[in-house]
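Notes from the pairing session

We agreed to fold both candidates in a single pass and log them together. This is the raw record for the first candidate, unedited. Please don't reformat it; downstream parsing expects exactly this layout.

Candidate A
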Amino acid sequence: MGTYEAAADAVGRCMRDEDGLTTAGMAVALLLVLALVFSSAQVYRVNAAAADIQEVADAAALAAENPVAEFMVAVRLCDAVVLSLSLLGTVAYGAGVVALCVPPAATVGARLVELGSKVLDARDAFAERAARGLNRLQAALPFLAAANAAAVGAANDGGASGGGYLAAAMLVPTRGTDIAVGPDADAAALREAVEADAEAVRQAAALAEEAARRAQEAKERAFERDCGADPAYCLYERAGHLAGLGAGDNPLYRSVDAWSFAVPLERARAYYAARLAQERPADGSAQEGARSALRRLFYEFAADELAGGYVRESDGSFEALFPRLPRNTDELRATTLYRLRAFPVTGEGDARMMHAWEGCPGAVGATGRGSVADLEEGGFAPCASCAFEPASLGNVASASTAIENGFEYHYAAIAQAADDYQAAREELAPVAAQAKGVAGDLIGRCAEAARAAGGFRIEAAPPGCRGAVALVVNVRAVAADGGFESLFVLGGMTLGARAAVSGATLLEDPSPEGQTVITALLDGFGRDGGAAVGAGRIVLDCWSGLLRAYGEGQEALAEAVESATSEVPLVSASGLGTWAAGALRDAFAAAGLQPARLGALRPVLVNSAHVAAAGDDRFSATFRSVREQALRFSSSTADLFTSVALELESEALDAVSAAERGVEVARIELPVGDLSIPVTVALPPSLGDDARDLVGRAFDAAASLYGEVTEVTRPWR
């Protein structure tokens, strides 16, 4: 049974007998019910008016935190620019070192190193300007918050409850921590090292490139003589034509990159073994028999000599031995063949005779054997059948070495190219090691500076970072019985001044909205750059990628480094450019850059006591003290707003002079592409010409309001 029904029943029982209800009893019951209905409706209206002002206070608190959330977007934007420029400077230095390792790109490398220094200078200048601009802006946040809150109050004037709202708001803390950036020792050390050692890298790379070019030229020359010239005369073609070697012993290579010096050495071994096995006189004459015997001796000698040849090659060294084959008597004297006692000797004294082979008709009855060295010493008569003389053996390979259709012609050229290649490689090794040592150290310093970039950042703890407290008063008096005029409610009374308190703070929303905002802004920067080319284009393209590193971390950094190195021309004979590019990518891959937190900051309602408890400034202390008194006492002298409002006004209006229509926090000025990009923060529309007056009136109203409280029914919000 409801309240009204119970009251009517009680009255009825008092005026009822066994015969039923009296007319007077019914009238009294109806009058009592009507009085209760209208009284309850009036109570509802009063409560609704109180609820309205609380809703306005909630909206004012949320509005007061909005400028703080927008300020933090600006902070993150500036921080992203500073971080990206830090990384850009180190990557530009690294890419410059890579380019310095490639002599044809040395000019680009020097420009990249120069731009690396200028980028870091631009970063330092931007960071200093951003810190000053953000400090000016955060000094205005209390006024901006108060203006937003006051605008909310004004926007809610009127309505069924007779709203005449004045809203005052205060940020907690009321003053922020000054934003400052210190020196970047790692970047300074990197700059000093690169400027000191860049020329050493360039010089060592130039010497290495020259040696590598000679080595490459020698290798290409040897490749052409071995098989690259096919189907023209070459070792491959001659081995197939003269010795009939198959593909297993006589491979064909189409690229010098797949070929090595071991190929012609193995080919020559197979060739002389085959020629030795195949050697036969062309006819039955004694002289042809002698020439065949000498060829067989030469082939056997060549096969033995080549068995001792070798090719030992690695990335860092090359050693090869291509045994030289004699092509005349002078060269024969330097071989073991010169003193080889392989030739039959007949006769005695002045009649002694040396023969080219055992089958010579004049060699019948040979009594010993001699050598070419013995023959040159004299005392031997010429043989009429074989006509053996010192030049006979020395000239076996003379013709085939002197003309390009001879196998030995190409073999000799390859042997000489192998010597040239080895000499160039021996010259290359120390200068390449020097270049790698210096360049590797600089690349390592670049990666260290990138890892240390996390210490050179824009960080802020602005006013309102803990929250905001809003005080709202409704100073418009309205008739208490407005809309309920009747004899059941006492007329002539008014709803007097009302007041409410609310608190709000910022919470990070894990949605991608915050990252989307930052990324959109930064992408706009990265697309600028005009008609920059060369090193300037490399830097701008790299910056476009590094801007994403703020939100994506290591992955974006690695992609930006890859992009920068891919735009540097790395083709070189020494391979130092490719090595340096790989070293740079590996070094930055270990940087471990973590993405920044980019969740959107959103104002949310909280208990105002929690906001005040988070601050240690005068306002928070005063608010806590007044609140405790209000909760402890219920006397009519309890002043709920005056002390707090005075603090609000003095703190908030101190910053009004810093508030402008829009604030340029800083300006990005890159040393390439004529880039000059402002970072601005638009102030809220509530900051009109009369904003100061509106804020002042809101504080005055809060300060003049004395709440005559007889009972505290709920804690402050």
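Candidate B (folded immediately after A)
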Amino acid sequence: MKKTISSIALMAGMFAMASCSDFLDQESPSSMGQNNVYNSTYFTELRINRIVGDLMQDRSYSQDLAIVWNMNSDVELVDGLGDNAFNTGSERGNMNYNLSPNWTRLNDTWKQLYATVEDCNDAIAGIRSSELLNSEKNSDRLAMRRYLGEALTLRALTYRDLTKFWGDVPMKLEPSSPDLSNAYLEKTDRDVILDQMMEDLEEAIEYLPWADEVAGYTTERPTKGFAHALLAQLALTRAGYAIREQAKEGYETKQGYSDPTYPTQRPDAATRNALYKKAAEHCYAVISDNHHSLNPSFENEWFLINQLVLDKNYHENLYEIPMGLNFASELGYTVGVRLNGITSKYGFNNSSGKMKVTAPLLYSYDKNDTRRDITCANFEIKEDAGVTKEMMLKNAPFGIYVGKWDPRKESDEWLQQNLKTTSKHMTGINPVIMRYSQVLLYYAEAMNELAGPDGIIEGCTLTARQALARVHTRAFADANKADAQAYIDNIPANKEAFFNAIVDENAWEFAGEGYRKFDLIRWGILAEKIWEMKEKYINALVAGDYPATLYWKWADAAQTQIDMSSVTFYETGLTDNDALALGYCTVKTNETTGEQTKTVNKVDGFGKSSVDKTDDSQVYTNLPSISSGLVGKGNPYMGDNMGDGVTVKNRYIMPIGASTISASNGKLHNSYGYSD
């Protein structure tokens, strides 16, 4: 029988084999009757694995939701500026907020997310009707409760994503009827959806174990800690700003960058305080339980992610979607340190082109912050005369690679395959949906709102300042931790100053991971921070803060690896002669005569651009095009204002795809000035 596609494409997701051993080679229960499936713990688990298979698809977390759809923020941007930034038929235009309902990816991702919803609804209904849920056999009852908790949590995650991208969307909480009588639905207010998902998560928390508390419940499955943290995230989102299809009575309208027809609003103060309290309590449940903690080494946190190794010591990553080498995940391929061409050391090249970070981000880090060089990879790896070398990028202020995903750190198994392959193969790197450092910063934010930087509330004994200190000081070596703590201690004891410190820490900790855009949205400062990034870039050029030339030293005797601590990011007055005298050079020895020659290691730095050169592509072409659909095509140096020429202010929401609307039986329509 041919499938009918409903208005929200609620068709069952294809059963995709997941990557880890827990999800491999599973028999599909689709041919079995509903009662038989959910009266067997074995087949019920297979049904949950089918939901995980949904998350592994390209239009879900293998590619789109882990990389592309999380841009642009003030620190991350999609590659492809200038004319590319206005191409409404590709991600390059759409992620610069030049959005069009005719971008076909909108329909594909919508379908995939609602396929996941449908599979979750099927599992939830099936488990609730199962006799095993109330079985006298304790092991069966507990297993079915855990599976119910997983399905509820994954549905909440999926609706989180749907509302992030589209705002108000249809909410469907039951399986589709054979006659599709409940398939064509109108939009539901996102606040109603978030309230329902928080209620579901309260239930799921009761059923789920902590990570590794029960055999098989690793951080590749939804656990109690993740459900707590996701609920806290939804509470903070619910308390925050969002652009609305129409003004809501009793809500506060944002001052400044808000559209008169589609206002950016948040709930009243009393509602917000209740939501902040909820967020703080659920974060504190994770913090106080001690199943999760920070890996003392930020570098090791990312080494393990690249190695496909679950951290069972600290459980810093509360939930990772399991992918598996060669099965799924483009992390490390379309985002990460660049392999520019086939190399003898690492094999087949990657693209690493979708997401970049910026020079203002790089310069915002403290010089001793270990996160800077892990996050900002201002170099690429190339083959030079049969030798694989790291080479600095030339004046790429908006083209710095995201170093968190790094082929130099990937597993030996990946390396051996990449040396042999002649085409792209999936890295298997798990997308991390929630990290413990997020929990600490969410907690700091909520506590700051409720009690200021140094106060506490009943039931929560950690202050906001103490939580922030844990994240910040972790990023510094032992020799620099006192200075890092001094930075925290010196943040003024008022809510506004402390909130600004949280916003900064969020960038330093999470740049490239795709979380920041949505935090900036709920804080009501997405457009403002993007415009501020442009101003910082211009101001640095005018002040001469960026060196026109970058010099570096080699870290190894073979002169193939850059010593990133030696790069002259902060030296604006060096000459080539100075650099040679200081050892910023490549030394070659003549094998016959033994004579040595020295060649200075240098490339054009960010300061090579100038506001005085009206044909400078970085200043007058690339900069104005960044996020132009949200903040306008203006240039701060030219006296332009944020939002000049923008159709709808603060329109970060995606339009519903044209094909989705045409198949909706008239139930769905676009808003925010988008056409159908």
